[in-house]
Amino acid sequence: CDTITISCAGFHSVQRMYGCELYDDGSTRGYWQDGYDGREFLTLDTDRGIFVPIMTEAQISAQRWNSPEVGEAERHKNYLQGECIEYLRKYISAGSAELERKVLPQVKVSGHQSDAVTKLHCRVYGFYPKAVDVKWVKNGEIDLMSEEAAQVLPNPDGTYQLRVTVEVIPKDGDSFSCHVDHSSLKEPLTVLWEPKKDSQSYIYIIIAVILLIAAAAAAAGYFVYRNRKNSYKAAATNDPSPASSTA
Question: Within 13 Å and on the Cβ side, how many CA atoms surround 116?
Answer without folding.
Answer: 2
